[in-house]
Design brief:
Layout: H1 2-19, H2 22-35, H3 41-48, H4 50-86, E1 91-98, E2 104-108, E3 113-116, H5 121-131, E4 133-140, H6 148-157, E5 161-164
Parallel strand pairs: 1-4, 4-5
Antiparallel strand pairs: 1-2, 2-3
Helix pairs in contact: 1-4, 3-4, 4-6, 5-6
């Protein structure tokens, strides 16, 4: 629980720092301090810096949603991994070629080729899970070091995968 809170706060700080305009914040604070001898921080934030306070609140909400989605995605991948481990292989081997233009080619051990021009990575992963291949050879030609489909295949199929980049 504590680690999740730390993840949310660090994510929120990064998002807020990228969006906020420090110059405006510093100018408003300097103007106020030149006119007044004391500063009630909570009042200053609530009444004079509402737009920044809303920005920070939005950043925390978005960070919490992002951390929650990442956690749920990890749980889904683990469930798929256990599902695949429990299934018997329907196909001995499948080759997956992820091209630089985003198209994907699937080939089985009988040299049957299927071209996917506009298919979501989740659809390809779903297809592979249902086929339950005994061996997967992935050719990632996308040029993307952290290709979402490649990473998901590696996590779900584990030691069944041979990856070439």
């Amino acid at each position: 629980m504590l680690s999740e809170k730390q993840n949310v706060l660090s994510e929120a700080l990064n998002a807020a720092c990228c969006r906020e305009e420090r110059g405006i914040l510093e100018k408003k604070l300097a103007e106020y301090l030149s006119a007044h001898r004391t500063l009630v921080l909570e009042g200053f934030l609530r009444f004079r810096m509402q737009e920044f306070l809303m920005l920070w609140e939005l950043a925390v909400d978005q960070a919490a949603a992002k951390v929650l989605m990442q956690k749920e995605y990890g749980e889904l991948i683990e469930a798929l991994k256990r599902f695949v481990e429990g299934r018997t292989s329907r196909v001995a081997a499948i080759s997956v070629c992820i091209h630089a233009d985003g198209t994907i080619t699937l080939s089985d051990d009988n040299d049957v080729h299927i071209e996917y021009v506009d298919c979501a990575p989740d659809g390809i992963l779903n297809l592979l899970v249902n086929m339950a291949p005994g061996k997967l050879v992935v050719y990632d030609l996308s040029g993307n070091e952290k290709n979402r489909l490649t990473e998901a295949i590696l996590r779900v199929f584990g030691d069944r995968v041979k990856l070439y980049r």
